[in-house]
Amino acid sequence: MAEAYIVGAVRTPVGTRKGALAGVHPADLGAHVLRELMARTGVDPAAVEDVVMGCVSQVGPQAVDLARTAWLSAGLPESTPGVTIDRQCGSSQQAVHFAAQGVLSGTQDLVVAAGVENMGMVPMGSNVQPALDAGLSLYGEGWTERYGTQEVSQFRGAQLMCERWGFSRRDLEEYALESHRRAAAAIEAGVFDEQVAPLAGVARDEGVRPDTSLDQMAGLKPLREGWAITAAVASQISVGAAALLVASERAVRAHGLTPLARIVQLGLVGDDPVVMLTAPIPATRTALRKAGLSVEDIDVFEVNEAFATVPLAWAKETGADLTRTNPNGGAIALGHPLGATGAVLMTKLVHELRRSGGRYGLQTMCEGGGQANVTIVERV
C-alpha cells in the first residue's frame, strides 16, 4: 500500500494585521516559506511536481493563482506548476490533503502543500464585497428556499453554539486566557523556533498577549447586545504563510529524506451550514473510526480556535482531553491567517509530535459552509 510522508514543514511568524508583516506582498510571503522549505529539505526544486496553496480572499494581490506566483517569486523552476484553492478556513489543510492524495494515488512523488493570507493587505471579505456592492446575493434561490433569509455568519454561529452547549461568557474567556498563556509559554521556551522562518525582522508570533487577564476581557463589549461573543474569545485577524513537503516512499529513498510524520487518515465532512462551526465534531469521530483509533490514542490535537466555542463544544462531544488540545496555544492567541492556518496548524502539529515524543496527532478545523477537514498523522 502506498504511503505519504510529511518531510518538511515551515511557517512564517503569524503577524497582526497592522504589524511588520502586513506590508509584505502575499506572493513574497509564500515565496519566503517555499524557498525555506526547499532549503531545509535539500530537495531539488525541479523534482517538485505541483504546488497546492490555500488562500481564501483571492482578489487583488492574492489573485491570479497565488501558488504559481509565489513559486516563481521565490526564484524556483518554471517547470513546476501551482494551483490555488479555497475551502474557506480549511484551505491549506485541504492543500495537504490534495498533496497527499496525489502521492497516495501513485501519480506523484513530491508535492508542496502551502497556504498564504495577508489580512492586513487584503481584508477578510474583499472577494465578496463587489457582489454586495452590486446588490447581488451570495446565495441563490435554492439556498433561500432551503434555509430562508436568516443571518448566516460565523459570529452568529458562535453564539448559537453558546446557546446549544450552555457556555457562559466566562467559560469562553477562561479558555481564551489559557490560549494566550500556553502560546506565551511556548514562545518563551523556544518551542516554535525550529519551525519558524523569520521574515521582515519578525521572528516571533505577534498576536500573543502574555499580560491579558479575565478582568480585561470582561471589560470588552459583546459583538452584539446579549451575546457572549467578544473579540477576546475569537481568532485574530492575521498575516502568515506556511509550507509542507509531502513525499512518497520512493521519493524518501531517492532524495535521502527524513520523514517527520506519516499521513494516516484524511477526512472531510459537512454539517449545519447556518451554525457553520460544528463540523469538526463529526469529522473527528469519522476519522478516528476509519483509522481504527480512539480519542485516547491521540497524543496531540490541533483544533482551530475560530472562536472558543469550537474547541469547547468539540471536546465536550468527543471526550478529547483539552490538556492535549492546542498545547502551545491556538488562533485566539496566535492568530488565524485564513487560507494559511491549515498549513500553520499542521506545521505546529508535526513539530510538536517530534518535540514531545507523541505518536499520533489529529488536526481539524471548522470552515465556511459548515464543513471540516480532519487529518491524522503518525510521528515516524
Secondary structure tally: strands: 10
Radius of gyration (CA) equals 20 Å
Q: Which H/E pattern describes the elements?
A: EEHEHEHEHHHHHEHEHEHHHEE
Q: Kindly state the mean pLDDT as a whole number?
A: 98
Largest sheet: 10 strands, mixed
- Large-scale geometry: globular
Unreliable parts: none
| Straight-line distance between termini | 17 Å
Number of helices: 13
- What is the percent of helical residues? 25-40%
Strand content: 15-25%
Q: Given the helix and strand composition, which structural class is it?
A: alpha/beta
Task: Explain what you see.
The chain is globular. Helices cover 36% and strands 18% of the residues. The two termini are 17 Å apart. Helix 3 (91-104) crosses helix 13 (341-356) and helix 10 packs across helix 11 (309-318). The model has no long low-confidence stretch (mean pLDDT 98). It contains 13 helices and 10 strands. Strands 1, 2, 3, 4, 5, 6, 7, 8, 9 and 10 form a 10-stranded mixed beta sheet that branches. It is α/β, with parallel strands linked by helices. Keywords: Acyltransferase, Transferase. Belongs to the thiolase-like superfamily. Thiolase family.
